[in-house]
Amino acid sequence: MKQFVVIGLGRFGSSVAAKLAQNDNEVLAIDLCEDCVDRMKNLVTQAIEADATNKEVLESLGVGNFDVAVVSIGDDKHSSILTTLLLKEMGVPKVVSKAVSELHGKILSKVGADEVVFPERDMGERIARHLMTSNLLDFIEFTDKHSIIELIAPEDMAGKTLKEINFRSRFQVTIMAIKRGEEINLAPGGDDKVLTGDILVVVGENEHLDILQEE
Question: Which domains does the chain have, with CATH numbers?
Fold first, then answer.
């Protein structure tokens, strides 16, 4: 179980916080908006009305001990930049910050953001899945129940053929392609091998893809 702190509970932040909590992670949600906090109280581990630009407040909440921080403050660029800076100064290993413009994103990177996201391009659920799964590279949801993911092949699959791994019966998903460097093997067959570092492009139901990502 990882510990996440999500600061800013607008549409994007709420989506990320809720999805992380649904997957049994410890989630602390913070916002200055009382109504926003109230909406999240039953969806996350703890929701607090607080000023995240105040270092003493962050320290009192033990934010520096969390694994990942998501800064999803709205249009207040100054607050998002300051909060990002404070979190890195406090030693949070990974800080993901939302940007509202290219310039804003560049500044966030300069002050220490490990990753900058643009909500117009990256949906909250997609970011949540990326944060929870270290080998997940990309995620495209094309129905409510089905998605396509790109992930680094788990180590226990290296050197085995698709037939030996038995993807279909083991995970109930389909391998669409195997990427190996600049080469792409489209619609690989059962005799094709998976090597260390290969990227698998997989399609299936979300619940089955979740099982695969846990490998």
Answer: 3-125 (3.40.50.720), 136-213 (3.30.70.1450)
